[in-house]
Amino acid sequence: MKYKKILLTGATGKLGRAIIDSGQFPELLTPPREVLDITKPDYIEKFFENNNVDAVIHCAALARLKECEDNPIKAIETNIVGTSNLVEEVLKKEIKIQKKIRFIHISTDGVYVGTKGNYSETDETIPCNKYGWTKLGAECAINPLSNFCIIRTRFFDPKNIKFDRSATDAYTSRVPVSYLAKAISTILEIDFIGTINIGGERKSDYEVYKEFKPSLQPCKFDGILKETGFPMTRDASMDSSLWKKIEQQKS
Questions:
Q1: Is 129:248 a contact under the CB 8 Å cutoff?
Q2: What is the pTM assigned to this prediction?
Q3: Alpha-carbon gap, residue 181 to 195, rounded angstroms
Q4: Which of 116, 168, 170, 217 is the most buried (most CB within 10 A)?
């Protein structure tokens, strides 16, 4: 692999665990939060002082929609300020070692408006909820770097579908988490700089989950909105043609 020492934030999360389990990354640094809390700059500074880092895969985030709505300050501190803290330390480290550190940032399809679907990387970004806004803020914090890739995506774990019903009229391009882990490995190795959508076909939530949980019952998106009480995207499907081209070239 081109990059040897890779810092993985959010290693205990769904995507973090999939990245570890993928076997695609031979030497991952996976510090626990007690060692690397991205909301505490002194923790990050100490970690970078004590470790050589060639690349960063930044998965750590507050991703639960309701928690972001109920506690926007925590969402800002984690998703925006935490990312900014990490970027600042990477920039300092680059000056010290006279080398660019590869930075992969995991964002979300929730930065798009989420109504019409088939969003390309150049479409306007106007999130519908606080989670989306804080993730968009995190994207802004990434841009001072020179060797970065922002991945807009949505993923799920086919082995862990906890709910019993899903909407037939809500659409995404979500992919299995194991697929995304392998895609991140590809993005890490190439010279692509900028923002990229990584997703699959446009499918309803019900269509996606039913394949892996046959007992799943159909419902309508408006009913889910009434139950949750906070805004969500109705059609956040993405145009991932740029990624598909890269994937085809690497296969």
A1: no
A2: 0.97
A3: 17
A4: 170
